[in-house]
Amino acid sequence: MAVGRLEQEINTIGQLGFTSYFLTVAGIVDSARSLGIRVAARGSAAGSLTCHLLGISEVDPISNGLLMERFCSLERNELPDIDIDVESDRRYEIYDLIFKRYGESDWAKVDNQSRCATVSMVERYRARHAIRDAGNALGADRTQIDLLAKSMPHVNARNIGSAINQLPELKRLDLSSPLIKATINLAMRLDKLPRHLSMHPCAVVISDNRLLDFAPVSINQSNYPMLSFDKDDVEALGFLKLDVLGVRMQSAIAYTIKEIAECEDESLDINKIPLDDKLTFDLIKSTRTLGLFQVESPGQRELVGKLVPDQFNDLVIGISLFRPGPIKSEMITPFLNARSGATTANLIHDDLAPILEQTKGVVVFHEQVIEIIAKMTGSTFGAADQMRRNLGDKEKVGEVCDWFYQRAIKAGYLKSVVDYTWQILRDFASFGFCKAHASAFAMTTYQSAYLKTHHTAAFLAAVLTCEPGMYPKRLLIDEARQWGIEILPVDINKSAAGYKVEKVVREKDKYLYTAPNTKSSGAKLTLPNATGYGIRVCLADIAGISVSEIKSIVENRPYTDLADFTYRSGAHWPTSQVLVEIGAFDLLHGIGIESKLNRRDLYVHLQELKQLNAGKAAHGQLSLALSPGEIDSLGLPDITKSEQIGSESQNLGLDITEHLLKQYAPFLDALNVCKSSDLIKVRSNQEVLVVGAKVALQSPPIRSGKRVLFLTLDDGFGCSDLTFFEDTQQSYAHVIKGNNLIVAKGVVRRTGARGVSIRASAAWSLDELYEKWLNQQSEMVSITN
User: Fold this and answer.
1) CA dist 653 to 54, 215, 463, 473, Å?
2) Do 708 and 768 sit in the same domain of this protein?
3) Can you spell out the DSSP letters for 750-767?
């Protein structure tokens, strides 16, 4: 089968004259991998066996039931897109590689003969940019303009007025001044007008002739030649266009593999891992998928909890279902009901059963539409794909209907079957998803899940470094702690530019941690226990530190004491001060171990070093630090736990010592709040009180058109996912938008074995409630005294 298909694909590619295109992309991918850069294909190209065998795509199209015709066919007769995902922080290395081979990145050396360039795109005005530019042009107060722009949702500029009138949090802003009103009116008139030309985030074109024969070329801000045409123009001109997309998860996977090699002395080929690893699927089933590609949002975690995936194809289906189209058309519920056995899958006709069985009668993929049309009409897959494309064109859908009915009836299908099938195909036009694209995404999802399962500390260190997901680092730090990983503070001799994994020795019973065994659909899940590992916080997270400072600090290590550091590290004084405040010299000076010194002593010592160096510089002498030696304890009180956490939060954006909610523990106990980890035990429709730091707030479009706010809170034990419908937003939208620490009340909603969310009914600022509670306590004390 594979041989016959490959022969058919090669013949198709040859007849279309696309051989050089495939070989060009394969050469670029091979060159990138030779530099150690991770590359993976995305989109319909994953359906090509040729792409798979050339090494462009990791996905096997045969075992995954993918079709070449969704990507390329004789009937379509146009150059297909081969999009590749690369490590985001190395994307420009791919650009340099392409320009070195096919053009010249330095326009001054090109002599106007370049055959390679990036593509431009027209940036058009939307609400936030329109408000800022209109406000600047009119000379409006910058503070007010900045507040209005930040408060505005991501909408078209013409909708600014309606947003101000409808959204509760905007109604509270003072927009009464004539200049602000003029700014809003002018901003709305800027809607969709061109703002400027910018470099397309991923498209590069290659030509066999010099580009200046076709279009103006300029140098963009990244110092690459850039055509003045956009992606549609260059495709119309017939240029070879390659989309090189920087994906931070690819960077995270590469970083994880590097950490595994350094910490475990193990070489892992992520492309050769088994795709049926039980422990990996146990992790996914548990819904503890923070940091994983495509399955970490609240909605995705809830869907995973319902789906309970146990094979690779389940991931493909889950990723495809969690799209605006399937959600709006309510495709998810029929699939889950049929999968669980609650209802019987409607496979329409025996001829279509092999096509629809995998998705329990629900048409999810473009490839299924192609196969259904081909089966019922006797057409080729290429012709069927053209009809699938025409389904989305209002002017052509009538012709498709006539063609489909005529050929399906002639093939012997009952009119009732044809009627039912046509209705599905027509409805599908707005909601389908390409299975090849979903398979490419599912491969990255599975790889990230495998790494989190078998190399938890290395993976989380990579996610913290590369930030590929939707959640802030604070939540990922808590996630690491929950797996038994120790969070190691910044250390001047150990911390690197990125987060690093270290093996740690723990005192017996000092760290109590039990690997969580949970149940999902009656099956026992085995989840990883990462005790014995630590993640060292990186230098790059320090507020105000520069890349050059980090490089200099690392290159000049080791340091013997604070004075040695100030002399040789190349760090600026403000950076050194922050390092002292967050405890980066604690281990070096034995603070908290055997030394009588504390951080206040080191801070005073740093000021002495600064004054000494300033004095020498003022007298024209070489600036030298104090000679290494003993630092006397000044008897100053050490910083408090609260000050330590505050310093970490201010200078790192993290709470390393302990979760920032811990200081509120007595108050939270008095409130009887429910831990996020205990929500799984709460019955459906039971009212609960939850608390946490705000880590995500989203307002995606939904079927009804009404605005719904999805809030995720972190309490140190996991996530609580809350939904605020319009009836609660009027009173509480300003609370959840304007505060970071929030107490919320709501009713638990249980969906599936592990799907848990909360329909919120109220929200308060934790700090305001805490202050009132402290005052009450104080009043009670004064009364008793």
Assistant:
1) 44, 47, 16, 8
2) yes
3) EETTTEEEEEEEEEEEHH
What tokens were used for 568?
């040789």
Phi-psi region of 3 (alpha: psi -120 to 50; beta: other; left: phi over 0): alpha
Strands 755-765 and 719-724: parallel
Task: Dig out the tokens for 19 from the structure.
Answer: 């051989």
Q: What is the largest CA-CA distance in the chain?
A: 101
Secondary structure letter of residue 541 according to DSSP: G
CB 251 within 8 A of CB 459: no
CB 424 within 8 A of CB 329: no
The CATH number assigned to the domain holding 135 equals: 1.10.10
- Boundary of a domain, candidates 142, 174, 192: 192
Instruction: Identify whether 666 is part of a domain.
Output: yes
Tokens of 744: 């919320």
Nearest to 686 by CA among 742, 744, 759: 759
Q: What is the pLDDT of residue 104?
A: 61
Q: How many structural domains comprise the chain?
A: 3
Residue 216 · residue 61 · CB < 8 Å: no
Phi-psi region of 774 (alpha: psi -120 to 50; beta: other; left: phi over 0): alpha
Instruction: Give the integer Cα–Cα distance in Å for 458 and 669.
Output: 35
* Cα–Cα distance for residue pair 90/97, rounded to 1 Å: 11
Judgement on whether residues 51 and 147 belong to the same structural domain of the protein: no
Q: Burial level of 183, CB count in 10 A (0-12/13-18/19+)?
A: buried
**What tens digit of pLDDT does each residue of 314-361 get?**
999 999 998 877 776 678 889 999 998 889 999 999 999 999 999 999
What angle (nearest 5°) sits at the alpha carbon of residue 66, between those of residues 63 and 69? 145
pLDDT at 221 over 60: yes
**For residues 410 and 378, is the Cβ–Cβ distance under 8 A?**
no
Element (H, E) at 519: strand 518-520
The per-residue b/e assignment along 611-620, b for 16 or more CB within 10 angstroms, e otherwise, is ebbeeeeeee
Sign of CA dihedral 96, 100, 101, 103: positive
Residue 18 in any domain: the answer is: yes
Q: Is 344 exposed, middle or buried (0-12, 13-18, 19+ CB in 10 A)?
A: exposed
Last residue of a domain, one of 177, 192, 207: 192
30 contacts 4 by C-beta, under 8 angstroms: no
Long-range contacts of 13-22 (CB under 8 A, 24+ apart): 13/50, 13/72, 15/74, 16/72, 16/74, 16/77, 18/72, 18/79, 18/80, 21/79, 21/82, 21/240, 22/50, 22/51, 22/54, 22/56, 22/82
Question: By the 8 A CB rule, do 435 and 398 touch?
Answer: no
Q: pLDDT digits over 357-391, tens only?
A: 999 999 999 999 999 999 999 999 999 999 999 99
Q: Where are the alpha helices (DSSP H) in 469-515?
A: 473-482
Q: Compute the distance between CA of residue 167 and CA of residue 169 in angstroms, rounded to an integer.
A: 6
Q: Where are the alpha helices (DSSP H) in 497-598?
A: 547-555, 562-568, 573-581
Euclidean distance between CA atoms 351 and 499, whole angstroms: 54
Residue-range definition of the domain harbouring residue 705: 662-779
Provide the token pair at 329. Answer: 């058309």
Q: CA-to-CA distance for 282 and 520, rounded, in angstroms?
A: 9
With a CB cutoff of 8 Å and minimum separation 6, the contacts of 171 are 164, 165
Please state, in angstroms and rounded to a whole number, the distance separating the CA atoms of residues 166 and 727: 13
Contact 118, 227 (CB under 8 A): yes
Q: Which helix (H) or strand (E) holds 353?
A: helix 353-356
Closest of 498, 497, 626, 647 to residue 578, by C-alpha: 647
| pTM greater than 0.90 (yes/no) | no
Q: Which of 561, 570, 621, 623 is nearest to 591 (CA)?
A: 561
